[in-house]
């Protein structure tokens, strides 16, 4: 299992990999909204559940903080549709 690291100063969650990290980026929107804007996993690391781990951690954190969640990232949007 890979450790998901929150980098609040960079508005992202990452999983450290050899070379390029897997990332889930977000931005704050007016009011109490947070928008998950993109999910990226390096090509050779895909299919290992890394994007899902990032999204689960990011959504859990956002819900705990009380944010209204917006998903302009297609992967996060699909995850929300399938898991809510």
Protein described:
The chain has 84 residues and is of the alpha+beta class. It has a single domain, classed as Gcn5-related N-acetyltransferase (GNAT) (Aminopeptidase). A five-stranded mixed beta sheet has the order 1-2-3-4-5. Strand 4, helix 1 and strand 5 form a beta-alpha-beta unit. It is globular and about 35 Å long. The two termini are 24 Å apart. The mean pLDDT is 95.
Outline the fold blueprint.
Blueprint lengths: L4 E3 L4 E4 L6 E8 L3 E8 L9 H16 L2 E4 L2 H10 L1
Parallel strand pairs: 4-5
Antiparallel strand pairs: 1-2, 2-3, 3-4
Looking at CATH, the homologous superfamily is: Gcn5-related N-acetyltransferase (GNAT)
- pLDDT below 50 for ≥5 consecutive residues: which ranges? none
CATH class: Alpha Beta
Helical content, roughly? 25-40%
Annotation field: number of helices: 2
